[in-house]
Predict the structure.
Amino acid sequence: MTSAGFGALRQIAVCAVVCVAVGCGSDSSDAVTTAETSAAAIRPTDEACGDTDRIEDAVSEFGVTGISIAGQCTTVVIATTLADDSSGADTAHRICRAAAAVAYTNDITSISVTAADGSELSVGIEGASCIGD
């Protein structure tokens, strides 16, 4: 092969490396945004899963810091400022019972009330009484 042939081959190789390195002209931030959008479209929203406003109203007298829907719209997670002790467990049990009165709609079949440290204090399952420590 002549030196002109090696020069052309080298240019092709450089173009191929540059093309791969920059994603063949696509903006990598577009690819990340598309992936995030796709993941968000798969993940259920609280609005689509159940009426968190009704649950908030039912437990408003307690120190609840957040209510979210987890799983495939199956579990209401109620975060609190409660301690992981017997007093916290008693209050969590009351929170669970109050939420159970309104929570079991659509696909929601369970309730989890958590302490400030994230530990589970009380659990409710549709058709059964709430239990806790």
